Amino acid sequence: MTIIDGKQTSLDIRDEIKKEIDDLREGTGRVPGLAVVQVGENPASRVYVNSKVRTCEAVGMHSEKYLLAKDVSQDELVELIEKLNRDEKINGILVQLPLPKHIDEELITETISSEKDVDGFKAENLGRILMGEEDCFKSCTPYGIIELLKRYNVELSGADAVVIGRSNIVGKPLAALLINESATVTVCHSRTKELAEKVKQADIVIAAVGIKGFVTADMVKEGAVVIDVGINRGEDGKLYGDVEFDGVSKKAKAITPVPGGVGPMTIAMLMKNTLKSFKKYQNLDKKN
Ligand code: NAD
Protein backbone atom coordinates (compact mmCIF):
# COMPACT_ATOMS: atom_id res chain seq x y z
CA MET A 1 0.00 0.00 0.00
CA THR A 2 1.31 3.41 -0.97
CA ILE A 3 0.68 6.56 1.04
CA ILE A 4 0.31 9.32 -1.54
CA ASP A 5 2.42 12.08 -0.05
CA GLY A 6 0.82 15.37 -1.03
CA LYS A 7 3.10 17.32 1.27
CA GLN A 8 6.29 16.12 -0.43
CA THR A 9 4.78 16.38 -3.92
CA SER A 10 3.69 19.95 -3.21
CA LEU A 11 7.24 20.78 -2.07
CA ASP A 12 8.62 19.29 -5.32
CA ILE A 13 6.19 21.45 -7.33
CA ARG A 14 7.11 24.51 -5.26
CA ASP A 15 10.79 23.87 -6.07
CA GLU A 16 10.00 23.67 -9.78
CA ILE A 17 8.01 26.92 -9.58
CA LYS A 18 10.76 28.67 -7.61
CA LYS A 19 13.37 27.75 -10.21
CA GLU A 20 11.16 29.08 -12.97
CA ILE A 21 10.50 32.33 -11.08
CA ASP A 22 14.25 32.77 -10.42
CA ASP A 23 14.87 32.46 -14.18
CA LEU A 24 12.03 34.86 -14.99
CA ARG A 25 13.38 37.42 -12.52
CA GLU A 26 16.75 37.21 -14.22
CA GLY A 27 15.28 37.37 -17.70
CA THR A 28 12.57 40.00 -17.26
CA GLY A 29 13.38 41.72 -13.95
CA ARG A 30 9.83 40.89 -12.86
CA VAL A 31 8.08 38.22 -10.81
CA PRO A 32 4.45 37.04 -10.65
CA GLY A 33 2.20 38.70 -8.08
CA LEU A 34 -0.79 37.36 -6.12
CA ALA A 35 -3.32 39.46 -4.19
CA VAL A 36 -5.16 37.67 -1.39
CA VAL A 37 -8.27 39.30 0.02
CA GLN A 38 -9.80 38.28 3.34
CA VAL A 39 -13.00 39.76 4.72
CA GLY A 40 -13.55 39.50 8.48
CA GLU A 41 -11.66 37.41 10.98
CA ASN A 42 -12.75 33.83 10.25
CA PRO A 43 -9.96 31.78 11.95
CA ALA A 44 -9.91 29.08 9.24
CA SER A 45 -9.71 31.76 6.52
CA ARG A 46 -6.85 33.40 8.37
CA VAL A 47 -4.87 30.14 8.41
CA TYR A 48 -5.48 29.58 4.67
CA VAL A 49 -4.64 33.18 3.73
CA ASN A 50 -1.43 33.25 5.77
CA SER A 51 -0.35 29.94 4.36
CA LYS A 52 -0.91 31.19 0.78
CA VAL A 53 1.08 34.37 1.47
CA ARG A 54 3.92 32.35 3.07
CA THR A 55 4.03 30.03 0.06
CA CYS A 56 4.29 33.05 -2.26
CA GLU A 57 7.33 34.18 -0.28
CA ALA A 58 8.85 30.69 -0.39
CA VAL A 59 8.69 30.55 -4.21
CA GLY A 60 9.83 34.15 -4.69
CA MET A 61 6.47 35.51 -5.78
CA HIS A 62 5.21 39.01 -4.95
CA SER A 63 2.14 38.93 -2.70
CA GLU A 64 -0.25 41.49 -1.25
CA LYS A 65 -2.64 40.72 1.57
CA TYR A 66 -5.82 42.75 2.05
CA LEU A 67 -7.60 42.24 5.35
CA LEU A 68 -10.99 43.99 5.24
CA ALA A 69 -13.40 44.52 8.15
CA LYS A 70 -16.31 42.06 8.31
CA ASP A 71 -18.79 44.90 7.71
CA VAL A 72 -17.04 46.22 4.59
CA SER A 73 -19.63 47.07 1.95
CA GLN A 74 -19.97 45.03 -1.21
CA ASP A 75 -19.25 48.16 -3.26
CA GLU A 76 -15.95 48.72 -1.45
CA LEU A 77 -14.91 45.12 -2.08
CA VAL A 78 -15.86 45.41 -5.77
CA GLU A 79 -13.84 48.63 -5.97
CA LEU A 80 -10.76 46.89 -4.51
CA ILE A 81 -11.05 43.99 -6.97
CA GLU A 82 -11.43 46.38 -9.89
CA LYS A 83 -8.31 48.21 -8.75
CA LEU A 84 -6.42 44.89 -8.52
CA ASN A 85 -7.74 43.92 -11.98
CA ARG A 86 -5.91 47.00 -13.35
CA ASP A 87 -2.75 46.53 -11.27
CA GLU A 88 0.15 45.35 -13.45
CA LYS A 89 2.06 43.88 -10.49
CA ILE A 90 -0.84 41.52 -9.78
CA ASN A 91 -1.34 38.42 -11.93
CA GLY A 92 -3.73 36.54 -9.66
CA ILE A 93 -6.56 37.65 -7.35
CA LEU A 94 -7.96 35.39 -4.69
CA VAL A 95 -10.89 36.31 -2.46
CA GLN A 96 -10.99 33.88 0.44
CA LEU A 97 -14.44 32.30 0.82
CA PRO A 98 -16.80 32.21 2.64
CA LEU A 99 -17.72 35.90 2.61
CA PRO A 100 -20.10 37.51 5.13
CA LYS A 101 -23.81 37.09 4.29
CA HIS A 102 -24.33 40.68 3.08
CA ILE A 103 -21.88 40.11 0.22
CA ASP A 104 -22.87 38.23 -2.94
CA GLU A 105 -20.07 35.65 -3.46
CA GLU A 106 -20.98 34.99 -7.07
CA LEU A 107 -20.90 38.69 -7.93
CA ILE A 108 -17.49 39.04 -6.27
CA THR A 109 -16.09 35.98 -8.04
CA GLU A 110 -17.36 37.26 -11.37
CA THR A 111 -15.81 40.72 -10.73
CA ILE A 112 -12.32 39.19 -10.81
CA SER A 113 -10.91 39.51 -14.32
CA SER A 114 -10.84 36.14 -16.14
CA GLU A 115 -7.08 36.60 -16.73
CA LYS A 116 -6.51 36.80 -12.95
CA ASP A 117 -8.99 34.14 -11.79
CA VAL A 118 -6.22 31.86 -10.46
CA ASP A 119 -8.68 30.03 -8.17
CA GLY A 120 -10.56 29.02 -11.32
CA PHE A 121 -13.93 29.72 -9.70
CA LYS A 122 -15.46 31.87 -12.45
CA ALA A 123 -18.15 30.39 -14.67
CA GLU A 124 -15.93 31.09 -17.67
CA ASN A 125 -13.04 29.01 -16.33
CA LEU A 126 -15.37 26.20 -15.24
CA GLY A 127 -16.81 26.23 -18.75
CA ARG A 128 -13.35 26.05 -20.29
CA ILE A 129 -12.52 23.03 -18.10
CA LEU A 130 -15.70 21.37 -19.29
CA MET A 131 -14.71 22.07 -22.90
CA GLY A 132 -11.40 20.30 -22.25
CA GLU A 133 -9.36 23.46 -22.92
CA GLU A 134 -5.84 23.39 -21.54
CA ASP A 135 -5.44 27.15 -21.68
CA CYS A 136 -7.54 28.02 -18.63
CA PHE A 137 -7.22 28.19 -14.85
CA LYS A 138 -8.20 24.82 -13.45
CA SER A 139 -9.68 25.06 -9.94
CA CYS A 140 -6.77 24.42 -7.62
CA THR A 141 -8.05 21.46 -5.56
CA PRO A 142 -9.19 19.32 -8.54
CA TYR A 143 -6.06 20.34 -10.47
CA GLY A 144 -3.90 19.27 -7.51
CA ILE A 145 -5.67 15.90 -7.32
CA ILE A 146 -5.06 15.17 -11.02
CA GLU A 147 -1.42 16.23 -10.64
CA LEU A 148 -1.02 13.95 -7.61
CA LEU A 149 -2.56 10.99 -9.44
CA LYS A 150 -0.30 11.58 -12.45
CA ARG A 151 2.86 11.95 -10.38
CA TYR A 152 2.02 8.64 -8.68
CA ASN A 153 1.49 7.04 -12.12
CA VAL A 154 -2.14 6.17 -11.46
CA GLU A 155 -3.67 5.12 -14.79
CA LEU A 156 -6.60 7.44 -15.48
CA SER A 157 -7.47 6.44 -19.03
CA GLY A 158 -10.32 3.93 -18.89
CA ALA A 159 -10.34 3.86 -15.07
CA ASP A 160 -13.67 3.78 -13.24
CA ALA A 161 -13.64 6.83 -10.97
CA VAL A 162 -16.28 7.73 -8.38
CA VAL A 163 -16.33 11.32 -7.12
CA ILE A 164 -18.40 11.84 -3.97
CA GLY A 165 -19.53 15.48 -3.83
CA ARG A 166 -20.79 17.83 -6.54
CA SER A 167 -19.68 21.30 -5.42
CA ASN A 168 -18.65 23.90 -7.99
CA ILE A 169 -15.14 24.13 -6.51
CA VAL A 170 -14.32 20.43 -6.08
CA GLY A 171 -16.75 17.75 -7.28
CA LYS A 172 -17.93 19.19 -10.60
CA PRO A 173 -14.59 20.48 -11.98
CA LEU A 174 -12.88 17.29 -10.78
CA ALA A 175 -15.39 15.14 -12.64
CA ALA A 176 -14.73 17.20 -15.79
CA LEU A 177 -10.94 16.94 -15.45
CA LEU A 178 -11.19 13.16 -14.96
CA ILE A 179 -13.38 12.86 -18.08
CA ASN A 180 -10.77 14.91 -19.97
CA GLU A 181 -8.21 12.27 -18.86
CA SER A 182 -10.50 9.57 -20.34
CA ALA A 183 -11.67 8.14 -17.02
CA THR A 184 -15.25 6.86 -16.72
CA VAL A 185 -16.74 9.06 -14.04
CA THR A 186 -19.67 8.62 -11.66
CA VAL A 187 -20.57 11.59 -9.48
CA CYS A 188 -22.33 10.75 -6.20
CA HIS A 189 -23.97 13.27 -3.88
CA SER A 190 -26.45 13.67 -1.05
CA ARG A 191 -29.37 12.27 -3.12
CA THR A 192 -27.49 9.32 -4.64
CA LYS A 193 -29.14 5.93 -4.20
CA GLU A 194 -27.02 2.92 -3.24
CA LEU A 195 -23.92 5.05 -2.97
CA ALA A 196 -21.84 2.34 -1.29
CA GLU A 197 -22.39 -0.05 -4.19
CA LYS A 198 -21.33 2.57 -6.70
CA VAL A 199 -18.18 3.38 -4.70
CA LYS A 200 -17.35 -0.33 -4.53
CA GLN A 201 -17.09 -0.51 -8.34
CA ALA A 202 -14.45 2.22 -8.47
CA ASP A 203 -10.76 1.89 -9.33
CA ILE A 204 -10.37 5.46 -8.04
CA VAL A 205 -12.49 6.89 -5.21
CA ILE A 206 -12.39 10.61 -4.47
CA ALA A 207 -14.27 11.82 -1.40
CA ALA A 208 -15.21 15.53 -1.15
CA VAL A 209 -18.17 15.36 1.20
CA GLY A 210 -17.23 17.17 4.41
CA ILE A 211 -18.25 14.32 6.73
CA LYS A 212 -15.58 12.75 8.92
CA GLY A 213 -14.99 9.05 8.13
CA PHE A 214 -17.78 8.94 5.49
CA VAL A 215 -15.99 6.34 3.33
CA THR A 216 -15.49 3.09 5.23
CA ALA A 217 -13.51 -0.05 4.36
CA ASP A 218 -16.61 -2.07 3.37
CA MET A 219 -17.41 0.51 0.64
CA VAL A 220 -14.05 0.24 -1.11
CA LYS A 221 -12.84 -2.31 -3.66
CA GLU A 222 -9.63 -4.19 -2.85
CA GLY A 223 -6.77 -2.39 -4.64
CA ALA A 224 -8.60 0.91 -5.22
CA VAL A 225 -6.83 4.28 -5.18
CA VAL A 226 -8.47 6.54 -2.58
CA ILE A 227 -8.16 10.32 -2.52
CA ASP A 228 -9.49 12.14 0.54
CA VAL A 229 -10.37 15.81 0.00
CA GLY A 230 -12.29 16.30 3.25
CA ILE A 231 -11.07 18.58 6.01
CA ASN A 232 -13.13 18.03 9.14
CA ARG A 233 -12.29 19.27 12.62
CA GLY A 234 -12.84 16.45 15.16
CA GLU A 235 -14.07 16.98 18.70
CA ASP A 236 -10.46 16.48 19.79
CA GLY A 237 -9.48 19.54 17.71
CA LYS A 238 -7.54 17.42 15.17
CA LEU A 239 -8.15 17.35 11.41
CA TYR A 240 -9.86 14.33 9.86
CA GLY A 241 -10.67 13.42 6.29
CA ASP A 242 -13.83 12.00 4.75
CA VAL A 243 -12.20 8.57 4.63
CA GLU A 244 -11.90 6.22 7.60
CA PHE A 245 -8.15 5.93 7.07
CA ASP A 246 -7.19 2.96 9.27
CA GLY A 247 -9.71 0.57 7.73
CA VAL A 248 -9.61 1.82 4.14
CA SER A 249 -5.80 1.88 3.96
CA LYS A 250 -5.78 -1.89 4.58
CA LYS A 251 -7.72 -2.46 1.34
CA ALA A 252 -6.49 0.38 -0.86
CA LYS A 253 -3.54 0.18 -3.25
CA ALA A 254 -2.81 3.85 -2.55
CA ILE A 255 -4.38 6.50 -0.32
CA THR A 256 -3.88 10.15 0.64
CA PRO A 257 -3.63 11.04 4.33
CA VAL A 258 -5.33 14.02 6.04
CA PRO A 259 -3.50 16.24 6.72
CA GLY A 260 -0.65 15.98 4.20
CA GLY A 261 -2.59 14.82 1.15
CA VAL A 262 -4.73 17.02 -1.06
CA GLY A 263 -4.51 20.18 1.11
CA PRO A 264 -0.89 21.18 0.37
CA MET A 265 -1.42 20.42 -3.34
CA THR A 266 -4.19 23.03 -3.53
CA ILE A 267 -1.78 25.83 -2.59
CA ALA A 268 0.94 24.51 -4.90
CA MET A 269 -1.50 24.65 -7.83
CA LEU A 270 -2.52 28.19 -6.87
CA MET A 271 1.15 29.14 -7.31
CA LYS A 272 1.23 27.27 -10.64
CA ASN A 273 -1.86 29.14 -11.88
CA THR A 274 -0.42 32.52 -10.82
CA LEU A 275 2.83 31.73 -12.63
CA LYS A 276 0.83 30.71 -15.71
CA SER A 277 -1.07 34.02 -15.59
CA PHE A 278 2.19 35.97 -15.35
CA LYS A 279 3.73 34.14 -18.30
CA LYS A 280 0.61 34.76 -20.35
CA TYR A 281 0.67 38.44 -19.42
CA GLN A 282 4.34 38.71 -20.33
CA ASN A 283 3.65 36.70 -23.47
CA LEU A 284 6.27 34.20 -22.36
CA ASP A 285 4.04 31.12 -22.48
CA LYS A 286 4.50 30.73 -26.24
CA LYS A 287 8.29 31.00 -25.97
CA ASN A 288 8.71 28.17 -23.46
P1 NAD B 1 -19.69 21.28 -0.15
O1 NAD B 1 -20.33 21.28 1.20
O2 NAD B 1 -19.91 22.40 -1.08
O3 NAD B 1 -20.14 19.94 -0.91
C1 NAD B 1 -20.26 18.73 -0.25
C2 NAD B 1 -20.83 17.72 -1.22
O4 NAD B 1 -21.02 16.51 -0.51
C3 NAD B 1 -22.18 18.14 -1.78
O5 NAD B 1 -22.14 18.09 -3.19
C4 NAD B 1 -23.17 17.11 -1.25
O6 NAD B 1 -24.11 16.69 -2.23
C5 NAD B 1 -22.28 15.96 -0.85
N1 NAD B 1 -22.83 15.27 0.32
C6 NAD B 1 -23.19 15.81 1.50
N2 NAD B 1 -23.70 14.85 2.31
C7 NAD B 1 -23.65 13.70 1.62
C8 NAD B 1 -24.04 12.37 1.89
N3 NAD B 1 -24.58 12.04 3.07
N4 NAD B 1 -23.84 11.44 0.95
C9 NAD B 1 -23.30 11.77 -0.25
N5 NAD B 1 -22.90 13.00 -0.56
C10 NAD B 1 -23.09 13.96 0.35
O7 NAD B 1 -18.16 21.01 0.12
P2 NAD B 1 -16.83 21.26 -0.76
O8 NAD B 1 -16.52 22.67 -0.77
O9 NAD B 1 -16.90 20.49 -2.04
O10 NAD B 1 -15.79 20.51 0.21
C11 NAD B 1 -15.90 19.16 0.54
C12 NAD B 1 -14.88 18.82 1.60
O11 NAD B 1 -13.59 19.06 1.07
C13 NAD B 1 -14.96 19.68 2.88
O12 NAD B 1 -14.56 18.89 3.97
C14 NAD B 1 -13.95 20.76 2.63
O13 NAD B 1 -13.41 21.29 3.83
C15 NAD B 1 -12.90 20.00 1.87
N6 NAD B 1 -12.08 20.82 0.97
C16 NAD B 1 -10.76 20.60 1.02
C17 NAD B 1 -9.92 21.31 0.18
C18 NAD B 1 -8.46 21.03 0.22
O14 NAD B 1 -7.68 21.81 -0.27
N7 NAD B 1 -8.04 19.91 0.79
C19 NAD B 1 -10.45 22.26 -0.71
C20 NAD B 1 -11.82 22.45 -0.76
C21 NAD B 1 -12.63 21.70 0.09
Structure report:
By secondary structure, the protein is of the alpha/beta class. It has two domains: 86 residues, Leucine Dehydrogenase, chain A, domain 1 (Rossmann fold, 3-Layer(aba) Sandwich), CATH 3.40.50.10860; 124 residues, Rossmann fold, CATH 3.40.50. The chain is built from ten helices and eleven strands. Strands 1-11-8-7-5-6 form a six-stranded parallel β-sheet, sandwiched between helices. Strands 3-2-4 form a three-stranded parallel β-sheet, with helices on both faces. β5, α7 and β6 form a beta-alpha-beta unit. It is globular, with a radius of gyration of 19 Å. The two termini are 38 Å apart. The site of nicotinamide-adenine-dinucleotide has 24 residues, from α10. Belongs to the tetrahydrofolate dehydrogenase/cyclohydrolase family. Keywords: Amino-acid biosynthesis, Histidine biosynthesis, Hydrolase, Methionine biosynthesis, Multifunctional enzyme, NADP, One-carbon metabolism, Oxidoreductase, Purine biosynthesis.
Descriptive terms for the model:
single chain; 288 residues; Rossmann fold; 2 domains; 11 strands; binds nicotinamide-adenine-dinucleotide; one-carbon metabolism
Summary, kept brief:
The protein is an alpha/beta fold and 288 residues long. It is 43% helix and 15% strand.
Portion of residues in beta strands equals 15-25%
Order of helices and strands: EHEHEHEHHHEHEHEEEEHEH
Q: What characteristic shape results from the CA principal axes? A: globular
Briefly note the CATH topology name of the largest domain: Rossmann fold
In CATH, the homologous superfamily of the largest domain goes by the name NAD(P)-binding Rossmann-like Domain
Low-pLDDT sequence parts:
none
**Rg, alpha carbons:** 19 Å
User: What would CATH call the class of the largest domain?
Assistant: Alpha Beta
Largest sheet composition: 6 strands, parallel
